[in-house]
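Sanity check

After download, print the first record. It should look like this:
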Amino acid sequence: MTPTVKLKVKGPGSHHHARFCGKHKNVYIFPRGSKLKYKGTVTPAPPKHFPVDIKVERCSGRHFRRLTTLHITGGSGTGVFKALIKAPTPRGHARVTYFSAVAVAGGKSSNKRYFGIHR
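Expected structure tokens:
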């Protein structure tokens, strides 16, 4: 059975509809400096600890550009992975900077999660 990877980005924020990087999406907007929780699952659960890369990209103009890659380890037998990281720093003069995040585990990618950071 091929693994399925899911990702959520959580934190203190509010829900908004926004236009960014040529997209129209419902996104959560988080305050600058807040802690974001990247949490997800891999099913079926691997029997041992497993590596997960969370790739974070920033919207720049009409394209997303790689900002960073977080390397974390998922739990053995549970398939759960999570990381608590300070929100990326907004750039430019816009009130909100938009980001996307995707988790990669076992060669499979999760769905993209979009979010914004308020200045």
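If your output differs, re-run the checksum step. Summary of this record's structure: The two ends are 44 Å apart (CA to CA).
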